[in-house]
Amino acid sequence: MSIKLILIGAGNIGDAILNLSRSRDYILTVADRDPQRLEYAKQAGFPNITTILADISHAPTVTKLISGHDVTLPACPHFLTPVIATAAKAAHSHYFDLTEDVESTCFVKSFAQDSTTACVPQCGLGTLRKSWQGRIQNLDYKTVRYPGHRDIIKILVRDLRLGKLERRPILKEVLETSIPIAKQDVVLTLVRRNHIQIWCGLANDKY
Fold first, then answer.
1. For residues 61-89, b (16+ Cβ closer than 10 Å) or e, as one string?
2. Whether residue 206 has pLDDT greater than 50
3. CB 97 within 8 A of CB 123
4. Which of 2, 19, 36, 65 lies closest to 183, judged by CA?
5. Which of 38, 39, 63, 113 is 20 to 30 Å from 28 at the Cα level?
6. Domain map of the chain by residue range?
7. CB 105 within 8 A of CB 122
8. Residue 33 carries which DSSP code?
9. Cβ count near 96 (within 10 Å)
10. What is the mean pLDDT of residues 179-192?
11. What's the CA gap between 170 and 194, in Å, rounded?
12. 8-41 in b/e burial notation, b at 16+ Cβ within 10 A?
């Protein structure tokens, strides 16, 4: 039986989710407020897909969108998590997100106790702390960048003030047209025990 899945947000993360879902037995609904993003999803030839132009920050709209779907996957800014997660719970739809925002995660966990469906925040590295709690002494993870990355980002975001809300579309265009998109991330893990250090690399699709 096909799974009815709704993807809320058709940006870069949403596009990655769509590509991973291409070969699966899903009936997909994609909702976004950007018609160009939705048009790309339609033109890309994803099977069994319906696109909906909608205000995904409006709680009643989101609740109506999710109704009838088995699974809800948000690919949106973390501040929309309460709206989408609450709507998914009300619609009895399994909820999974990728946010690493602590406040959003705490919100989802707070109402997941009495939910009749799964509510799973932080599907990724954000779950490491919970997974290894009580088993190791220290846990830390960081994003690895090349030398000079911080200074370049500082120039763009602070010095040129492209981090301001009204100028972020400019920053987005600069980054997307100038930097190649990596289709495969690698997780580097450092294990220390008895003064011995071991580094290992793991592609993200091997989890």
1. bbbebbeebbbbbbbbebebbebbbbbbb
2. no
3. yes
4. 19
5. 113
6. 3-129, 149-206
7. yes
8. S
9. 16
10. 71
11. 49
12. bbbeeebbebbeebeeeebebbbbbeeeebbebb
Token pair for 108? 């989802």
In angstroms, the CA 101 to CA 5 distance is 23
pLDDT tens string 68-121: 999 999 999 889 999 999 999 999 999 999 887 888 888 888 888 888 999 988
The amino acid at residue 1 is M
Q: Distance (Å, rounded) from C-alpha 94 to C-alpha 158? A: 39
CATH number for the domain running over 3-129: 3.40.50.720
CB 9 within 8 A of CB 83: no
Residue 169: per-residue pLDDT:
86
Show the tokens assigned to 16: 């990655």
Over range 112-134, report the average pLDDT.
79
- Strand runs labelled E in 26-142: 26-32, 49-53, 71-74, 94-96, 119-120
Provide mean pLDDT across the span 33-60. Answer: 88
